[in-house]
Each structure stands twice: as C-alpha cells, then as structure tokens.
Specification:
Elements (H helix, E strand, L loop, with lengths): L5 E3 L9 E9 L8 E7 L11 E2 L11 E9 L2 E9 L9 E7 L10 E8 L5 E7 L7 E10 L2 E11 L2 H8 L17 E2 L27 E6 L5 E5 L31 E2 L38 H18 L1 H8 L8 E6 L14 E7 L2 E9 L8 H14 L3 E6 L23 E6 H15 L4 H15 L15 H10 L7 H25 L3 E3 L9 H15 L1 E8 L5 E7 L4 E9 L6 H11 L8 E6 L4 E6 H4 L18 E11 L11 H17 L25
Length: 719
C-alpha cells in the first residue's frame, strides 16, 4: 500500500475479524529499537479514557480486543506484534491507531525498512505498508483500522511526530505523566509504587510483606476517578503508615477540634509491581544436601518417551489454565481470544475407521464463541511425524477447529517448516498449523516469574514448579539440541578443504546454526529479563532461502559461522563466531569510549571494571579509520593500562573510538548437547562472556522519559 491508501479487510480475507499486526525495522549499527502502542479512539478522534492507551505497561485491553505480543525473533531480526480482535471491539470504538515511538534523541530516520504488515487469523499476510520518508520523527502513526458502513477498513497513515510518545498520546487525548522517578513530593502526597517519597518513607511493597513472602504483591494498574493510572496495593503491604516523611502523628491539642487530614492525592503512576520470585533463595531447612524438596511435578520416575510426552503435556496445559497470564502469553500469537480457557489431555477423536488421540486440546471461550486447538507434543529430541500432524489437521478441519499446535525441542524458522502438511484449498474453514519449542515455553515462564511478574504468589509458585520441571534432565524438554546429520560431514569437508559452494549440506548447517542462535536469545532473555534479539544488518525484504544460500557459500569459503546478538541495556553488540577450521569459538563485544575524559582515563576505567574478568580476556583498542590498535590479554594489561594507547610520534593524531573485548574457547566436536557437543560449548561460551565480561561493564543509563517499563531490575546472567 502507499501512504494515504485504504482498503476493506473483508475483501482480503474471510478470516479478517481477528488480525495480527507486525511492525518491523532494521539498523545498520544493529542497535535500533522502538516501542509499539495502540490507541482506541471514540467519536471525535479522542480516547474514551486512559485505558484506551495500550503500550508496554498496559499491554492488554480489558475486553481482550487488543493484546501487545512483544518482540518476536525473525529471520531478519525481530518483529513487534499486536493481536487485534475486531469482532469483540467495543461498538463505540471508531478507530484503532497503531503507532511506535523511540526515546531520548533517537529518531526513526536512523532506522531502515520501516514496515507494517497485517495478517489474518491463519497467519496469511493481507497487506503491507512501508514508510520511506522518516527523518527526525521520534514517534510514528503507521496506520489505523476504522469502521465504515458496518465493516472494518485499514488506512496507511505514515504520520510522524517529533515530540515522541508523549506528544502522540496527547494529540489523542491522553495526559501522560513524564515526571522523572525520584521527584520530590508535596506534603501529603501518597508515594505509590515507582515513586520516591523521600527520606524516611518505606516505598518497597515487598519490604512490608515480612519474611516468608514470595515477593511484593500489588494489584494491576487501575484507573483512578480522575482518569489517571494508579497501582493499588493489596495484602500486608497495603497498610497506611502512621508516620509520613519522619513526622509523628501527634494528638490534637485540648479544646481544639482535631483537623481532618485530606485524603492522599494519587499522582499518575504507570510502574506495575507484581509477584516475582526473589533473586536470592531463602535458606533451606534441610539437614544436608541429600534432602530434596518436594515437587508438584516430580520427574525422576520418568522411564520412556511416551511417559515424558504425556507428563509434559499435562503439566504444561494445566499450568496454562491456572495462570491466565501464562496461558494468554502462549496462545495469543496463534489467534486465540482472551477468555475462559480449559485444557484436556488424551482426547479420543474419530478419524475414519481408526480413532486418533492427540496429546492435548486447548479451548478458549469468548462471547459465546469457541476457539479450539489440537496439541501434538514431542520430547527428548524426537521428531514430529508428518502423517500424524496431517491427521490432526484433517480432524480439525472437519470439526471446525481453528489450529493445530506442535510442541517439540526444535525451533522453527521462517521458510523452513518442521513438518509439511497438505492444506485442502476447497475447504472454506481454514486450520492453521503453529509451532512452539520447549525453549519458548521456558522463556515465557522465566520472563513472568523473574522479571515481569504475575497476579499472585500462587501463580508465581506454579510457574516456578513448571520451570523446574522443564529444566530437569529427565523431562526431555531441553530445547534444540542437535545440529543435524549434515554437521559432522560438513566439518570434515572443511578440514579436508573439499566443501564446495552450492552444497545443500552447508545450507542445512546454516539453518541449524540459526536455530541455535534463536534458542540462545530465548535463554539469555529469560535469565537477564532483557530483550535479546539477533541482529541482521540487511533489509528485511530479503528472502530467507536466498539469504541462507549466501551464508552457506560464505561457510564454504571461510569455514566460519557467525551471529550478532543485541542485549538491551548493554553497551554494545555481542558477536559470536564459530571457526570450524581452527575449532575455536569467539565471543566479543565492542565497547565505545565515553564522550568525556582522556583515552588513558577510559583505558584505566575499563581495566578497573574488568577486575574479576578472566585473565585470558583479549582487549584491543579500536581507532578511527578502521585501523588496528594495540592489543593484549587482560593479565598483561592490568599493571599497565597505558599499553592500550597507540605509541609513536603520531599517537596524538589517532582517535580512539572504543575497545574490543574477546574470549576464546575450544569448540565441541559432536553435533549434540552432550558434554563434548558443539551446542553445549556455545552455551558455555556465551554464559561465561555475559557473566564475567558483560555484567561488570557499566550499564547505559535508562533513556526512557515516557512512562516507565514494568518489571524488576536486570538480573546478571548465570555463569
């Protein structure tokens, strides 16, 4: 579509009542990012209230019509996705505006490939709109859905704002509070979660809960009578203290009427505190380490693959129904509505003369309508069987079900399905085949209980038990753990220098490498509580098959696999390279020098920050013009940081732009996840670099002046 054009959704698809919107962009530097938002507008082009502003701290509409699904890794980097259920949209909502914003001095002109896509319930793309004229704007309205003549239409807008998210929201009737955290409060003002009440006032909700509590308990953000956002405390931490700002409540003087204090004024607050698992576990009451805590989902007794599949399916589906946040997180990308969810296992369904028994069934009821998905589960690296999945697709089509969900250790890639099925184009009802990996399930559980929070302590405990089950060695739910049959022959051919360009085995290895990188992003993101996404320094329109063919030719020519990961809040891009010729893994990061201070001060400061880093860490000085600067191991540089500075007469003319930090590790030989396997060596290399090098580096200051994000402080990666 071109800017200003519009089209009806009904003419594009029969399944357009529920659509998925994707916003994507790319950056040559690999560090560009933005946040999506949705505004529901009534008559007059304004929101009906603050609840109509959906953004990172308010990702779900009360009626379930809008749900922000977050960023999803794709073959070209990442895509921010939104689920819109237009059928259940309130009748007084006339327009649905889809926008995105950047923060601080970042502008959309610094990004490439700004694009909006709209797909129907089945995942089929209906339309796309690219923005080519972005420059100094810090917020953009990509497009809008609007009612006309009883049907929904879409208009490509492409309007930019130089005033950021606050300016955009204000234009549509939202009063955004941009006060910096820690601002001084007026006397009598209530310091709610996320605001600093000054000395002498306890503001941590978890501190008042007492020992033995799982974490701070605060109800979801609610609307106050004035239309402002406010978090309402519940439980023991909700008690009003008798003293405010260190002043005692003295009794009234005799003979005088006691002054009635005005009710506390609640300022707008958008930080949501919910229950999360503490970073530091409580001391065990066990007499010795041989005592094992009782578990809700025991796993040591699992003996075969059938038991593992049955137990894993039942455990997962039951937790999805009991923890609504978790169930919605997993099913929303598949087009499931927000509603009452029930799950079933070992359901017997007729299919010709032989009944079939899928591993599970998910049903969601919303406004009298049912959404149903069949679930097929595999564990312990077992592959999906094409005929089995095909049977479930046929059953779902005949019964009017919406989806079939496959769940296994493998990670799906765009353009490379894990199993091929036939779709009968003559059927009016479409059934969609979706895939989940166990790594994605564990990632969502980690994000909720360790960083973003859930509704209550019981939900947090259930997710903790689920996570323990998935990570147990006997569960079989360990994610991608096999580089495939082409791995060993390709490595041998590289050693023998007999691997030729165009060899299809090289493409298979590249696909397995992308799956591994995708899983590393999921695992790191769950541990750190930050977005970890692959960096693609190409335009997003590139065909995945053509791109993999190019990478396969590079593998044949250079004998190296490489990837870049962007970890939110870190000073640079984490680069990962596997040199199949030398058998070495290299993890590295380029750290820029500060704008102030001399090069010697920057070098000394860096060495101090890396006081506990491994002695074999390589440090190289980056100089302007792309030349090579001094380098050495941390062990040699600790007593003499000045060795990082260029020497010679022309050293004053050399501009130092940063430092490259690198760790090297031997590469596993086998294709699997055993102790000597390649996948295990990649995980160990990334974990070691994040824990010993990235974590000690000073994090960049928070750049968002808009409403603060929900969640807790970043957690250092596990070593």
């Amino acid at each position: 579509m071109v800017k200003g054009a519009n089209t009806g959704l009904a003419v594009l698809s029969e399944d357009a009542e529920s659509v998925r919107v994707g916003l994507s962009w790319s950056s040559e530097e690999g560090d560009g990012d933005a946040d999506v938002s949705v505004l529901l507008l009534g008559d007059g082009g304004k929101v009906r209230g603050d609840a109509d502003f959906l953004f990172y701290n308010n990702p779900l509409a009360a009626d379930g019509s809008v749900q922000l699904l977050g960023k999803t890794p794709t073959d070209s980097g990442s895509e921010d996705r939104i689920s819109l259920d237009l059928h259940t949209m309130a009748p007084d909502v006339e327009r649905v505006v889809v926008a995105a914003s950047r923060y601080d001095d970042a502008r959309f002109g610094d990004l490439n490939g700004l694009r909006l896509t709209v797909a129907d319930r089945t995942g089929e793309d209906l339309l796309g709109f690219s923005i080519e004229d972005a420059s100094t704007e810090s917020a953009f309205v990509f497009g809008e859905f609007y009612r006309r003549g009883g049907e929904w239409k879409f208009r490509a807008v492409g309007q930019g704002y130089e005033t950021g998210l606050a300016g955009l929201a204000t234009d549509f009737g939202i009063d955004v509070d941009d006060a910096e955290p820690g601002a001084e409060l007026e006397p009598g003002v209530d310091a709610g979660p996320g605001m600093d009440a000054g000395p002498g006032v306890e503001t941590d909700a978890g501190a008042a809960a007492g020992a033995g509590e799982v974490g701070s308990v605060v109800a979801p953000v609610a609307l106050s009578g004035e239309g402002t956002l406010a978090a309402v405390a519940t439980g023991p931490s909700a008690a009003i203290p008798a003293q405010v700002a260190g002043e005692s409540a003295a009794p009234a003087a005799p003979g005088k009427e006691e002054a009635v204090a005005p009710p506390p004024v609640r300022r707008p607050r958008t930080v949501k505190k919910k229950v999360t698992i503490p970073k530091v576990t409580k001391k065990s009451l066990a007499e010795n380490d041989s005592w094992r805590p009782a578990r809700l989902f025991p796993v040591p007794s699992l003996k075969n693959d059938r038991e593992r599949e049955t137990r894993a399916t039942s455990v997962l589906l039951s937790v999805m129904t009991q923890v609504p946040e978790f169930g919605r997180r997993l099913t929303a990308p598949f087009g499931a509505p927000v509603g009452r969810m029930e799950t079933f296992t070992e359901v017997l369904l007729r299919h010709g003369d032989t009944p079939k028994r899928p591993d599970g069934v998910i049903r969601v009821e919303r406004a009298g309508k049912l959404w149903t998905a069949l679930v097929e589960t595999k564990t312990n690296g077992n592959p999906l069987r094409a005929q089995q999945v095909q049977d479930y697709m046929d059953i779902a089509a005949r019964r009017g079900y919406e989806a079939v969900i496959t769940l296994c250790n493998d990670v799906a890639l765009e353009g490379s399905p894990l199993v091929d099925v036939r779709i009968d184009g003559r059927r009016k009802h479409k059934v969609v085949l979706w895939h989940l990996s166990w790594a994605e399930v564990a990632h969502q559980a980690q994000m909720l209980i360790r960083h973003e929070g859930v509704g209550n302590a019981a939900h947090a405990w259930l997710l903790q038990e689920l996570l323990h089950y998935l990570q147990h060695e006997n569960s079989g739910c360990h994610g991608f753990q096999n580089m495939g049959p082409a791995w060993v022959p390709v490595r041998k051919s590289i050693d023998d220098e007999t691997l030729c360009q165009g060899d299809p085995r090289a493409v298979d290895v590249v696909e397995s490498w992308e799956r591994l990188v995708r899983q590393v992003c999921l695992r790191l993101g769950g541990e750190l509580g930050q977005k970890v996404l692959p960096v693609r320094r190409v335009r997003r329109a590139s065909d995945p098959h053509a791109r993999r063919a190019v990478l396969a030719d590079l593998l044949c020519h250079e004998g190296r696999l490489s990837a870049e990961l962007r970890i939110e809040g870190t000073p640079g891009i984490l680069a990962l390279a596997a040199d199949l010729r030398t058998g070495k893994l290299r993890t590295s990061m380029d750290v820029p020098v500060p704008d102030h201070g001399s090069p010697l001060i920057s070098a000394k400061r860096l060495i101090r920050q890396l006081a506990d880093a491994p002695a074999d860490l390589h440090v190289q000085t980056l100089v302007g013009g792309g030349g090579d600067g001094p380098r050495g191991t941390l062990e040699r540089l600790r007593p003499e940081p000045a060795d990082l500075l260029p020497k010679g007469e022309a050293r004053s003319d050399v501009e130092i732009t940063g430092f490259r930090l690198s760790l090297f590790k031997g590469m596993g030989n086998t294709r699997g996840n055993a102790e000597s396997g390649f996948i295990r060596s990649v995980d160990d290399a990334v974990d070691r670099f994040c824990a010993s090098v990235v974590a000690p580096l000073e994090r960049r200051p928070a750049r968002r002046s808009q409403p603060e994000r929900q969640g807790s402080e970043p957690v250092p990666a596990a070593g």
